[in-house]
Structures are given as structure tokens and as C-alpha cells.
Design brief:
The complex is a heterodimer of chains A (336) and B (332). Chain A is of the alpha/beta class and 336 residues long. Chain A is 28% helix and 23% strand. In chain A, strand 9 and strand 10 form a beta hairpin. With 332 residues, chain B is an alpha/beta fold. In chain B, 31% of the residues lie in helices and 23% in strands. Chain B has 11 helices and 12 strands. Chain B has an 8-stranded mixed sheet, with helices on both faces. Chain B has a 4-stranded antiparallel sheet with strand order 2-1-4-5, covered by helices on one side. In chain B, strand 11 and strand 12 form a beta hairpin. In chain B, helix 4 packs parallel to helix 7 and helix 5 crosses helix 7. Classes of the chains: A alpha/beta (336), B alpha/beta (332). At the A-B interface, helix 6, helix 7 and helix 9 of A face helix 7, helix 8, helix 9, helix 10 and helix 11 of B.
């Protein structure tokens, strides 16, 4: 069986400034040549700092914004090529849960309407069918049917996030994109939402694209992880391997920067200098080189190729592609 | 001040807020001491009273609706609650300063950062314009802003998030306070920037011999930065201990519960979230405030009378009647 999601070479450039005649004077390459795979019942964690392009990637895959280039396949069908009615029908396969449950739920709607809005847009249902569907959805996320007639303001942050998950599940999606879905919650609420997400995955064979800046949460939930920096994926692979043996200097720095409770076996900290550079003027060569503790001359000029090592794929000159080997994943890129 | 007198001693503090159901305490019976040069963490979930406590130390509880209804806050032996607003203003920003979570809302967008630092030192230390400006350059380079002499002329929006937080720290440190209150100072920052700012804070704290009250919900940050920790729940301190001891051998079920929720510490295991939520101030349970959520609670023992705190070792205390009988687990 093929993967639930297969995104190949997706890129998106935004125009952030125009001159008087409407010509673009400043562009930001928010996502550049990103490829992702998520198998059925698998969780792919997409991590990176603010401005790395991880949320844009999620929105591109859900087609909330349109990619400039690239292909998005959902369960084998080319989702990125669909238009009109077909697109609207196929949207049920990809649903999203957002970070802020205070702004993502309409405050003037009761819960039963919120969770069944998608069902209504996809086909006609009688009132009683909708009611039954709403009860079932709420139960799925651990909320009782006595909540049906309540408004969002009557719920705590964690409960609202459960409602947002119920709404996303109404159309039985194949892929659920969670964009910082537990980041605004307290630890114990966060833990209970994470448990619910894990249970739902088992029950419904869901695939998750879990976008977060919180590496602890991602570590707990993910089977595989992709690390983004300035719109590019710098490393991806099995979660355990990424955490035990990070290869890209950025991944190493990122993981070592996470404050840990345990006092034993803490990784020695790699403190990065400086901030994330502006995506409108990305550095030449490897985009990470100005902050990289291991930057070489080559890194300032040549864009690194993505090579396979172990279960991981890394784009870094520390791991040169063997020309006789078929290790190169996407060869032929040059510095611009 | 004698050598063994603490820099800050909070005694039996109660802070109340006016609500629809009358004045209700949101912090009660809080005791807290901070010695010179020590970093004390204040942790707990949202609504546990940690930020209100830090505002109380600064004399910044909005009144109305808030009021300190009981207790004392002794700073260098003098009760801050007895000070008039004018006298408190001389302490605030001078001997005690505070940094907040969101630097963009704490800095004035209309003034150069140099002016914002200079005005603080001119007000408190009576520096001339010239001296104050030099001091601004000095503290900006102290917090690691490259090209400080030029950057004093920049406005807050010209700095990145991490740099803005450094500017905030620079303002707070300009008068060399003996106590810094840091309320979630790195929560809005990315991890790599957070690591830079935490390193900076720790370094400055050691160089200047400053005491810090570090308010945060992030136990990882506490573990790396604090010497001692106070865990708050529903407005009370439920456990306090030196950092390593607290995490390795928690005495209160709530502390253990917080540790069990940490996703990175339980990879491949099921998490054990604490059931239920923090009770709102008008629905405080009888007995131990935590008992409805506590898996060790015993009817008749935990739900009847208010729970006193007890000493369980040097610098350690807990507010749980069953703590001696429980075998709780921590993270080493």
C-alpha cells in the first residue's frame, strides 16, 4: 500500500513588497523544494524554529495556499492537480487542527454545528443524522453529548482543542495536519490531548503531519521527523535515529538547546550564534552556514545535496555524496 | 541587613481579587525566601498564582480589582507593603527589576532603546544625560548586543525577538538590582535563542551576584537555571526544595504529576496526564486543594481540613498529609 501523503518538490515564494507599478521588489522563498512522505497510521513530525516555513508547508499540503511548483499525492491520487468540484470533494481527505482554539472556533456557533459544518458542506444530512454524527464525534474525542448545545466560550483550552479535533475528524480524513496543536496548552492538558491523538490514530488508522516547534512533544509522538531551516528540509529520518544520532549541525544544535529536566546524559550544548537570517535574502551555498559551527569554504558557495545515511537523509557538506553510489536523493542543485 | 537574613522574605501572603462572588483569594498562605545571589524558580500551571505573586513583589497588583489582603513582603528587612507609592517607585527598577515574557509589548515603540535605558538610570541614579547614555551603551554590550554604540539609536522594531529580550534585560540590569524577577522571559523565544538568553541570564546573575525569582511553566528551564524551586498549585506553595532533589525525589503528588506529563521523558510510554483541571477561585475544594485530582487522596484524610505545610528536610517542605507514606517517582 502506498503512502497516505507523498509531496514532491513543493516550493512557494511570497511577494512581500511591490513598487508603484505592482512589480515585485522583494520576494521570500518560504518553502523551497520540500519533499515529504507519510505512510498510513504514521506520524511525521515537522520541526523548526519560527520562520522556518513549517506552517506554510502544512498549509500548502492542505491546499489552503497554492504551491508554485511540486506535486502532492494523497493516497495515490494527485491532489495538487484537482480543481473545482473534484478538489472540494477531495478536501475531506486532508484536515487541519490549528494552534489557537480560541480563534479557530466560531464563538457564535454551538458545538454541534461547529463539528458538523464539514458534513454539511459535503452532502445533505437530515437534522437527526447530523445530531447523531455530532454525538459520535464528541465521544470520539472524549467529550460527552451534554456539550452539544454549548458555545466555545464555555470550554477550557483543552476542551476547545478537543472540539477542533472532532471537527477535523468529521469527514474521516486520511491525513490530519496538526499545526502547533498542543503548543498553547499546559503540560497536563497537553499530555491528555497527546494521548487522545495517539488513541485516535490507532482506532482510525490516521496519518499525522505534526508541525511543532516543541521538540519534546514531537519526540513523544513521531515515528519519523523532518527538520526545516529557512524553507528547506535539512535532515529527516526515523525519530529515534534523529534524536540519538543527529547528523546535521543544525539538528544537533536544535536538540541540544532543549532544556531538560534530567541531570544525567544531557547532550553537551551547541549554542548557535545569531538569529535566523531573512528568507528574502537567504545566504548563498548552504543556508545554515552563517550560524554553523562547522562551516567550511565549500558551504559558502555550494548548495549541499541530500544524501541517505542510515535511515536518515541529510543535506550537509559534512556528508559528501559518493559519486559512484546512488546515495544522492536530489542531485544537480547549484548555488543561486 | 545581617549576613544570614534573606534578601527577600514573603510571609503568609494572601492576594485577593474582586469577582462576582466577592473578594476571593488567588494566592494564600504563601511563604517564600530568596537569598542574595540565588535563583529561585516559581513553577505551576496557568492560574496557579505564580505571575500574581511576582507582580505583588513589584507592587504592581492592579487595585482595584486586586489587593494584598494579608502578609508581609520583606526586602532587605523592610516591608514593601508599608511603602507609599513614591517610595516603592524608588525601589522598583532600581533594587528590584522585572523582565516579562513579551518584549515587544514591554518596550516603548516610539523611543530609541538607548533613551529607554538612559531614562531609567537618570531617574534612579541621578546620572547626567551624557553619563546615562554611556551607561546605556555599556549595558547593551554587557547583554551581548553587537555594535552597541550604534544600536542604542535603534528603535525596538529594529531588533529581532531574541535581541529585544536582551534589550529588556539590559534595561532591567541598568541600575544593578539586587533582585531580578523574570516572568517567563524565554517562553516566546525559539529554543536556540532561548538557550542564548538563558546562558546570558545565568552568566550575568553570577557576575553581578544578583538574586533571581524565575517564574516559568517549563520544568526543563527550571532544571537548568534554578538553585531552588517552589511548586505552586491553586495559589499555594505545595512543595519547595533544592532543584535536583525536587526532580529526583518529589514529595508532593502534584510535582510527580507534572513530571509524568513530560512527553520527552516518556518516549514509547503512555503519558499519565493529571485528571481534571485547576479549580477556579470560587470553587475551591475543601481540604487539600489538589485532592480531587490526586490518585493518592484518601477520603476523610485529604478532603476535610486545610493542609498545613511541613518541613521534610533541609530547605525542603511539602503541603501534603500523606507525603511520608507515599513512594513517589521523579526524574534523575
Amino acid at each position: 500500500m502506498g503512502p497516505t501523503l507523498e509531496a514532491t518538490g513543493i516550493s512557494k515564494t511570497f511577494t512581500v513588497r511591490r513598487d508603484l507599478l505592482g512589480r515585485a521588489t522583494e520576494r521570500v522563498a518560504a518553502v523551497k523544494d520540500v519533499s515529504l512522505r507519510v505512510a498510513q497510521s504514521e506520524t511525521l513530525g515537522l520541526v523548526g524554529e519560527s520562520g522556518s516555513g513549517k506552517s506554510t508547508t502544512g498549509r500548502l499540503i492542505a491546499r489552503l495556499i497554492e504551491a508554485d511548483t511540486g506535486e502532492i499525492r494523497i493516497d495515490g491520487t494527485d491532489f495538487s492537480a484537482l480543481t473545482g468540484k473534484q478538489l472540494q470533494k477531495a478536501r475531506k481527505n486532508v484536515q487541519m487542527v490549528f494552534q489557537d482554539p480560541f480563534s479557530s472556533l466560531d464563538p457564535s456557533w454551538v458545538v454541534s454545528n461547529i463539528v458538523t459544518e464539514g458534513l454539511r458542506s459535503q452532502g445533505k444530512l437530515s437534522t437527526s443524522e447530523r445530531e447523531a454524527a455530532a454525538v459520535e464525534l464528541l465521544e470520539l474525542v472524549g467529550l460527552g453529548s451534554h456539550h452539544l448545545r454549548r458555545y466555545p466560550y464555555e470550554f477550557s483550552g483543552g476542551q476547545r482543542q478537543r472540539i477542533a479535533i472532532a471537527r477535523a475528524l468529521a469527514l474521516r480524513p486520511k491525513l490530519l495536519i496538526c499545526d502547533e496543536a498542543v503548543s498553547a496548552l499546559d503540560v497536563s492538558t497537553q499530555a491528555s490531548i497527546l494521548m487522545t491523538l495517539e488513541e485516535l490514530q490507532d482506532r482510525l488508522s490516521l496519518s499525522y503531519l505534526f508541525i511543532s516547534h516543541d521538540l519534546s512533544v514531537v519526540r513523544h509522538l513521531s515515528d519519523r521527523i523532518a527538520v526545516m531551516y529557512l524553507g528547506r528540509i535539512v535532515e529527516s529520518g526515523e525519530a529515534a535515529e534523529i534524536y540519538e544520532e543527529p547528523r546535521h549541525p543544525y539538528t544537533r544544535a536544535l536538540l541540544s538547546a532543549v532544556p531538560q529536566v534530567r541531570s544525567r546524559n544531557r547532550p553537551s550544548r551547541v549554542v548557535l550564534v545569531g538569529d535566523l537570517p531573512s528568507a528574502s535574502k537567504p545566504p548563498a551555498g548552504c543556508v545554515f552556514h552563517p550560524r554553523c559551527p562547522e562551516a567550511m569554504d565549500k558551504c559558502r558557495e555550494v548548495v549541499p545535496q541530500t544524501v541517505a545515511i542510515g535511515s536518515s537523509e541529510v543535506a550537509c557538506h559534512l556528508y559528501p555524496a559518493d559519486p559512484d553510489h546512488s546515495g544522492v536523493i536530489n542531485g544537480g542543485q547549484r548555488a543561486t | 541587613m545581617s549576613a544570614n537574613e534573606p534578601l527577600l522574605a514573603i510571609e503568609d501572603l494572601e492576594i485577593s481579587f474582586a469577582t462576582e462572588s466577592g473578594m476571593l483569594p488567588v494566592v494564600r498562605g504563601l511563604d517564600l525566601t530568596v537569598n542574595s545571589g540565588e535563583v529561585v524558580g516559581l513553577v505551576g500551571e496557568s492560574g496557579c498564582g505564580k505571575s500574581v505573586t511576582s507582580l505583588a513583589i513589584m507592587g504592581l497588583i492592579p487595585n482595584p480589582p486586586g489587593r494584598i489582603t494579608r502578609g508581609r513582603i520583606l526586602f532587605n528587612g523592610a516591608n514593601l507593603l508599608d511603602l507609599r507609592e513614591n517610595d516603592m517607585r524608588a525601589v522598583r527598577g532600581n533594587q528590584i527589576s522585572m523582565i516579562f515574557q513579551e518584549p515587544m509589548t514591554s518596550l516603548d515603540p516610539a523611543f530609541k532603546v538607548g533613551e529607554q535605558i538612559a531614562s531609567t538610570v537618570r531617574h534612579h541614579l541621578g546620572f547626567s544625560k551624557r553619563e546615562a547614555w554611556d551607561r546605556a551603551v555599556e549595558v547593551l554590550s554587557l547583554v551581548g548586543i553587537p555594535g552597541a554604540r550604534n544600536r542604542v539609536n535603534d528603535y525596538p522594531h529594529m531588533f529581532s525577538g531574541g535581541m529585544r529580550q536582551r534589550v529588556m534585560i539590559a534595561i532591567a540590569l541598568a541600575c544593578e538590582p539586587s533582585l531580578l524577577i523574570a516572568d517567563e522571559p524565554t517562553t516566546a523565544l525559539d529554543v536556540t535563542i532561548q538557550a542564548q538568553v538563558l546562558d546570558l541570564l545565568r552568566e550575568l546573575q553570577q557576575d553581578l551576584g544578583m538574586a533571581v525569582v524565575f517564574v516559568t511553566h517549563d520544568l526543563g528551564v527550571v532544571s537548568e537555571v534554578c538553585d531552588r524551586v517552589v511548586v505552586m498549585y491553586a495559589g499555594q506553595a505545595v512543595e519547595w526544595a533544592p532543584t535536583r532533589q525536587l526532580f529526583a525525589r518529589p514529595e508532593h503528588p502534584y510535582t510527580q504529576g507534572l513530571l509524568e506529563c513530560l512527553p520527552a521523558e516518556h518516549v514509547g510510554e503512555t503519558l499519565r496526564p493529571i485528571p481534571g483541571t485547576v479549580p477556579p477561585p470560587h470553587q475551591m475544594p475543601s481540604g487539600c486543594f489538589f485532592h480531587p485530582r490526586c490518585r493518592y487522596s484518601v477520603p476523610g484524610t485529604c478532603d476535610q481540613h486545610p493542609i498545613p505545610s511541613s518541613e521534610v528536610g533541609l530547605d525542603r517542605g511539602v503541603r501534603c498529609v500523606r507525603s511520608g507514606q507515599l513512594d513517589l517517582h521523579g526524574i534523575d
